[in-house]
Amino acid sequence: MTEKEATAQGEAPEPTQPPPSGRKNAYNTTVDGGGGLVRVGAPPSPLTVLGRAAGTIWSVPKARVGLILLAVFVLAAVFAPLLAPYAPTDNSFARAEGGSPAHPLGTTTAGEDVLSQLIYGSRVSVLVGMVAGFGATLIAVLLGMSWGYTRGFAADVINFFVNLFLVIPGLPLMIVLAAYLQGGGLAMIIFVVVITGWAWGARVLRSQTQSLRSRDFITAAQFSGESSFRIVFREILPNMTSLITGSFFGAATAAILAESGLSFLGLGDTAMVSWGSMLFWAQNSNAILTGQWVLLFAPGLCIALLATSLTLINFGVDGLSNPRLREGKGR
Amino acid sequence: MRYVLRKIGLLLLTLWAAVTLNFFLPRMMPGSPTDAAIAKLAQNGPVSPATRAAIEAQLGVPTGNIWDQYVTYLGNVLTLDFGVSYTFFPQSVSDLVLTALPWTLVMVGVVTIVAFVLGTLLGVLAAWKRGTFLDSLPTLTGTFTSAFPYFWTALLLLFFLGYVLQWFPTSGAYSARATPNLSAAFIADAAYHAVLPAVTILITSLGGWILGMRNTMINTLGDDYVTFAEANGLKPRAVALKYAARNAILPNLTGFGLALGGVVGGSLLVERVFNYPGVGYLLYNAVTNQDFPLMQALFLMITVSVLVANFIVDVLYGYLDPRTRR
Amino acid sequence: MQRRRRSRWPLFGSALGVAALLATSACTVDVPTEDDNNDGGGADGTSMLLAADNGSPTFDRNFNPYSPGKRTTTTLIYEPLFVTNTLDGTETPFLASEKEQPDPATVIFTIREDVTWSDGEAFTPDDVVFTFDLLKEFPALDTNGVWALIESIEVDGQDVVIHLTGDNVPAAAIIQKTIIVPEHLWADVEDPTTYTNEDPVGTGPYALGEFTPNEYTLERNEEYWQVENVAAQELILPASNTQLDVVNNGYDWAYAFMSDVENTWVAAAEGNTFWFPPGGTIALFPNLTMAPFDNPEFRLGLSAALDRDRIADVAEEGYVDAAGMSGLLLPNQEAFLNPDLPDGGAVAQDVDAALTHFEAAGYTMSGDQLVDSAGTPLALTLTTPNGWTDWLRGATEVQTQLAAVGIEVTLNQPQPAAYQQELQNGNFQLSMGSFGGTGSIYEDFSRLLSSEFLQPVGTTTTANFQRYSDPDTDALLAELRVTLDEARQLEIAQELQTVMFEQAPVISMFYGGLWGLFSEANFTGWPSEEDPYASPATWDANPLLVLTNIEAAG
Question: Is B95 in Cβ contact with C242 (below 8 Å)?
Fold first, then answer.
């Protein structure tokens, strides 16, 4: 699984999602220590937890850089119409121009402004990352945690589905689905990325749920007659905030990379301006030959930077649940 | 034993489901193999109405009831007879797969092993020398490079090392006039051609292993037994390597097993950019040409290898770490 | 013809892509040559580097001329009876020296004498008859559908007499394209549909030289009947012909759309030239079974609303011309052009005229939207295959231009296979499509307009995708099919152009280019605008015309 398909399945190389088994925490005896410490009986308000979590993340320099980087991309996406000098599909300029004051990054072979495309392109990546990351995480949480908590037949059924989605090659599956759902535009891409990207997170979350299941405070809750649903989502879930947040960033990274891969293969909506489709067009019109290496370089760099920002943030998220991973502290 | 039997039962069930999905998924795609063939011909000029009939007759595209096709397919899977490819007619699917497989297995397989070993070592080093240059350099570089889209890394290498500097060939798995054989000259030639695709995969996958190993290693270094060993006066180097690293590598091995299983699937985008004649490229051809027989065989092969790797890891884990055996 | 190789990857997918088959060729063991990609280029002036056949990514050794997965150059090893210049329909005799049509239901080909197969056996009229019988026995090989036209076939001395199923003058043009194979070898082939013919024996100017999965060569057939016209001693065909390769490796002949061709290909080496003649017409195909497209006024409105020069410019980066509404490829087929068509059939953008037509069709402007009598704004879907990037650019421009006359256009981009299916089944409103370029006026118009191909929406048809049906047009086509009178043929061709112009069954927009890149460093006399004796296409029989016409340079 050395390829994009791996990435698509959420094996995106990023730190929280432990090496695929997701069983890192089986070795980690203090999962619920640290910043987001939650104990049964007196759950602090979610806002407090969030605030404390944000503080912890911000205190990690790497994560800080990541947050700033992410903020830049999000702002670019939101304010694209204000920031971009031209409309991204305005093809009324001279073709294949080099950089000039009017077009700092030049124009495409179709006569569009590269800088404007780059700015507008952030919209697709940011949106796909957010929405697909959220969707995949949601499915992963629901299935992964139920899977981890239940035993017997139900667990086997879920195990079966998760395994199925884990073993089907991701990128080809995406290609098939994309062909089938042709013309669906961005929604289609997001759907495809979610469908192929949730299984990994589910596996990771199951392991953690399993390990928490046998803790005393869960046993206590069981004896006090709480429903399984309540135990899973009110008792266990808060203890996994950081893991879930990590899953989200991991899934978002994978989604961004997956979208760019699909668009690069020309299987997304090639009429839509995204970084992946910019690379598709650059490759298509042979930017290398026309000396327009910016066309190849810039969109890829943006994808890499956006994905990096999410991974960097995860360094901070790691520290939330696991003080040992916090920066600045020796062992 | 019951644990293993149950796992095997689940494995077989998943296998059947995957095989079934492999059958129905491609058939959901709009357009038939004939349409795909015509679409390709149409790129070269007008396709005469007679051509369609001829192609349909030649490919022998199945027309019967889908249920019958499914039963036939299951039988074929059991006997490993996948028939003739539509795209590469009249070649048999097995021949195509067997031709492509060695390239992928060797190139992607070697890189996966190298990336794992190198990444793990760097991860151990980073965790051990935490907070120093030896930590931040590999960690940050790894974070950044692992965020590169595969195809972009491939394009950049192709542009700079292949096109501008002309150090390495930009496409194919061996030289123009070479015929695959096992001579030293050919192997050297093939290795030379594998450099760019291999480096692409290395660059983009190394970071994941570094970060993964670093994290587990840091965790392990904080564990009681490590502290205990240190307190007993063992040398830090011995502690790091003998105790911490050995335990920390366990979860990473899982990932490695799965990555090895995934090697069979090749690396579609990288093989595509470099015109590398491996399984990933074959898969791309199969999917974009609606080549059902080829697609089924490849999906099956990838699925089985990932499943088997997954299964071995699962069983192994049950023994290595009884805590996960419930 | 038209579209590109530039689909998703430059220079990919030749006809039916073909695979790596290391296994089949593993019998010849040799060591890689030192120069890997830079060989060829014809330093000695007689060797030619060609980007004509693309591996996917390597070559499969298949030289069966009837196989969709054949090596492209199989058509240089075997020959047909006649080769038609697809640009203007001119015919050049190859294995037949003459053709006669004594009546509209008979064609007589006089078979060339003194031709031998490359294994030394004599080529005879019996080989021709054998070939046709083979196609009859195995319909899967009959890719031109000749047995839909032929009743019977017989040998008369050096002549092959073909009796057609009915009066059918244009049939000869299809029949003569048939590639002839040797009876003494093919008679023993058990199943010619799956036969890969690894060691081809043909009559053509070239024979297979060395074959490896990444590159093969064709050597000149020194016994070829017109060997004196064949300048290139050896053809080198690499499997990888990316645009990078084409520009850097000194190709003599390549077929590729290249962005900014002057600064890439032409600038790469002394003597590099290009020629992009029209090879087909790219048009909007309206689905004539549904409103509002069933109304000619509406179609004429669409036609008048488009700025074709702009569309051509956007779609093909200015390398092709806008197409008029005559249905002809100009200037190739200028000789057939109806002089009564205003501006030679060209239609300039005229928004007022468009609105007048739309009004006649029941649509009026309301604010900035075109609405029907009930006040509902008009919204259309335009289908274009995913990955055919020039069409997509054209379609996007159409979208913009139609928005200016108040029509909202949504793009639908299915994968190419699904696009074919939607087109064939009539499952579209407005679709990008192409027509023409066969070299035969009858074929071009018949495939586009004949109700012979008419099928209801939902049923597959192989031509007339827009589902046009008009008894008068059918009558014209029927007459064109049976008349031997060339003056009458011309008249009918011109009347058909009037149908195209006035009825607008499809809305022609721009020409699809044939992207020929040539180098005059080693060979001269390539087809060009001044001497359009062949198209720049590197497939089908066209290379036979080119390679028997070029000369070694200097």
Answer: no
How would you write C41-67 as a 3-class SS string? Answer: CCCCCCEEEEECCCCCCCCCCCCCCCC
Distance, CA of A19 to CA of A142 (rounded, Å): 22
Q: In a structure prediction context, what are the per-residue pLDDT tens digits for chain C, which is 554 residues long?
A: 344 433 333 333 333 333 332 233 333 333 333 343 344 443 445 899 999 998 878 898 999 999 888 999 999 999 999 999 999 889 999 999 999 999 999 999 999 999 999 999 999 999 999 999 999 999 889 988 899 999 999 999 999 999 999 999 999 999 999 999 999 999 999 999 889 999 999 999 999 999 988 899 999 999 999 999 999 999 999 988 888 888 888 899 999 888 888 888 999 899 999 999 999 999 999 999 998 999 999 999 999 999 999 999 999 888 999 999 999 998 889 999 999 999 999 999 999 999 999 999 999 998 889 999 898 999 999 999 988 888 999 999 999 999 999 999 999 888 888 898 899 999 999 999 999 888 889 999 999 999 989 999 988 888 899 999 999 999 999 999 999 999 999 999 999 999 999 999 999 999 999 999 999 999 999 999 999 999 999 988 999 999 999 999 87
Q: Which fold has domain A64-79+105-325?
A: MetI-like fold (1.10.3720)
Chain A interface, mutation test: which of B211, B227, B247, B312, most A Cβ atoms within 10 Å?
B211
Chain C residues within 8 Å of chain A (Cβ atoms):
6-10, 243-244, 247, 258-260, 263-264, 314, 317, 386-387, 389, 392-393, 396, 411-415, 418
**Chain A residues within 8 A of C4 when measuring between CB atoms:** none
Closest CA to C276 of C4, C550, C551: C4
Q: Do C260 and A290 touch (CB under 8 A)?
A: yes
- With beta carbons under 8 A apart, name residues in chain B contacting A24: 215-216, 219, 251
CB contact burial C300-325 (16+ within 10 A = b; e otherwise): bbbbbbbbbebbbbbbbbebbbbbbb
CA–CA dist A128, A135 (Å, integer): 10
Minimum-distance CB partner of A96 among C244, C259, C387: C259
Say whether B219 and A27 touch across the interface (CB within 8 A). Answer: yes
- Judge: C143–B51 Cβ closer than 8 Å, yes or no: yes
Contact of C214 with chain B, judged by CB distance below 8 Å, is answered with yes
Question: Is B148 in Cβ contact with A296 (below 8 Å)?
Answer: no
Domain chopping of chain B, boundaries:
93-324
Among C347, C348, C324, C349, which residue's Cα sits nearest to residue C337? C324
Phi and psi of C322, rounded to 5°? -70, 150
Which residues make Cβ contacts (< 8 Å) with residue C404, sequence separation at least 6?
C305, C351
**Which among C259, C387, C396 is the nearest to A290, CB-wise?**
C259
Taking the C-alpha atoms of residue C385 and residue C89, their distance in angstroms, rounded to an integer, is: 29
Residue C409, classed as helix, strand or coil, is strand
Q: What is the ipTM of this complex?
A: 0.83
pTM of the model as a whole: 0.84
From the options 1.10.3720.10, 1.20.120.420, 3.40.50.11210, 3.10.560.10, give the CATH code of B93-324.
1.10.3720.10
User: Where are chain A's structural domains?
Assistant: 64-79+105-325
